[in-house]
Structure formats: structure tokens, C-alpha cells
């Protein structure tokens, strides 16, 4: 698995965030039984940068906690069986890895939300990573049923990793 990681936030991290994020990404891929080696890009930034990205790509001029930019448009969420090595530009030409997409996390928002929800920053970053990974694998929360499915999957991955509230 290729894990491209950039930390551009001003706030220092209190824990081994890169290692923990990698574990969450791998656990999400295992949970969904992804049959491919994958590539995921992570950017940890601040509210100013995520606000600019949110405005540019979603037309929302406000900071948010996490943004997901999936490479694949799944017909069915988690439908890895729809994909093969001959499918479009979904695979890196040199490594052969499945290009899942990009995750952008605001460290400022994560710090605030960890305080608001009364849990650790590690748990908040893990949650945002899991949430975004399920978006990269085609899941969404536009309906109540879809939201319940995503919440269940995120919760099971975090419980499996013993990253609890």
C-alpha cells in the first residue's frame, strides 16, 4: 500500500498520527475486503486551507472537518468486484495500485471536535479517517439508511482497532 502523507497544520500533534492513520486506512480496506493494494493521499491542514478547498470544490465558503475526493465512482458502495486492472485510470501505471483518492483533514476542527465530544484527538482523527475512507469506497450519508450503514461500518472498524470514545 502506498500512503502519501502531508502534514501542513500549524498545531503540533500529540501522538503518532501518521502510524495511526495508516492503521485505520488498512483496517477499512480489510473490512471492505478490498482485493487490491491501494494508494491513498492524506493532507492534514488547518481551517484556512480546508475552507479554501471546500469553497473551490463544493461551493461552501466555510471550514469543515474532513473532505474526501474519491477517484472511483462505484456503482455500488464497496463494489470492488466491478473493478479490474483494465478499468479506466483507477490503477497507478507504475505500481499497479488502486488509486482510491484523497483525504483532507483540518487539525483545528479535529482538536475542537475532540474537546466538544469529550474524547481524545487520536480518536477524532481516527474517526475522520475512517469516515473519509468509506466515502472513498463509495459510501455516503445522504439518506438515513445510508448514514446508518456508514456509522455502523466506521464504528466496527474503530472498535476492532480499540479506538474508543
TrEMBL record:
Its cellular-component GO annotations read: cytoplasm
Free-text comment on the cofactor: Binds 1 zinc ion.
- Record SUPFAM superfamilies: Metalloproteases ('zincins'), catalytic domain (SSF55486)
Query: Which BP terms in the Gene Ontology apply to this protein?
Result: rRNA processing
Q: What is its EC number?
A: 3.1.-.-
Ribonucleoprotein keyword on record: no
UniProt keyword list: Cytoplasm, Endonuclease, Hydrolase, Metal-binding, Nuclease, Ribosome biogenesis, rRNA processing, Zinc
Q: Which cofactors, by name? A: Zn(2+)
Q: Does the keyword Nucleotide-binding apply?
A: no
Where is the protein localized? Cytoplasm
Offer an example of a GO molecular function term for this protein. zinc ion binding
Give the domain of life.
Bacteria
Q: Main subcellular localization, coarse class?
A: cytoplasm
Q: Where are the transmembrane segments?
A: none
Residues that, per the record, bind Zn(2+)? 131, 135, 141
Q: Enumerate the HAMAP family for this protein.
A: Endoribonucl_YbeY
What does the UniProt record say this protein does? Single strand-specific metallo-endoribonuclease involved in late-stage 70S ribosome quality control and in maturation of the 3' terminus of the 16S rRNA.
Question: What does the similarity note say?
Answer: Belongs to the endoribonuclease YbeY family.
The name of this protein is Endoribonuclease YbeY
Naturally occurring in which organism (per UniProt): Mobilitalea sibirica
Amino acid at each position: 500500500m502506498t500512503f502519501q502523507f502531508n502534514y501542513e497544520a500549524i498545531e503540533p500533534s500529540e501522538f503518532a498520527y501518521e502510524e495511526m492513520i495508516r492503521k485505520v486506512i488498512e483496517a477499512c480496506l480489510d473490512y471492505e475486503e478490498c482485493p487490491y493494494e491501494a494508494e491513498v493521499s492524506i493532507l492534514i491542514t488547518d481551517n484556512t486551507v480546508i475552507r479554501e478547498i471546500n469553497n473551490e470544490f463544493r461551493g461552501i465558503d466555510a471550514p469543515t472537518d474532513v473532505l474526501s475526493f474519491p477517484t472511483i465512482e462505484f456503482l455500488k458502495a464497496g463494489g470492488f468486484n466491478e473493478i479490474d486492472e483494465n478499468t479506466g485510470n483507477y490503477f497507478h501505471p507504475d505500481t499497479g495500485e488502486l488509486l482510491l483518492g484523497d483525504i483532507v483533514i483540518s487539525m483545528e476542527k479535529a482538536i475542537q471536535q475532540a474537546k466538544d465530544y469529550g474524547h481524545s484527538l487520536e480518536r477524532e482523527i481516527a474517526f475522520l479517517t475512517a469516515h473519509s475512507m468509506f466515502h472513498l469506497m463509495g459510501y455516503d450519508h445522504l439518506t438515513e439508511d445510508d448514514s446508518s450503514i456508514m456509522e455502523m461500518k466506521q464504528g466496527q472498524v474503530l472498535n476492532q482497532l480499540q479506538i474508543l470514545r
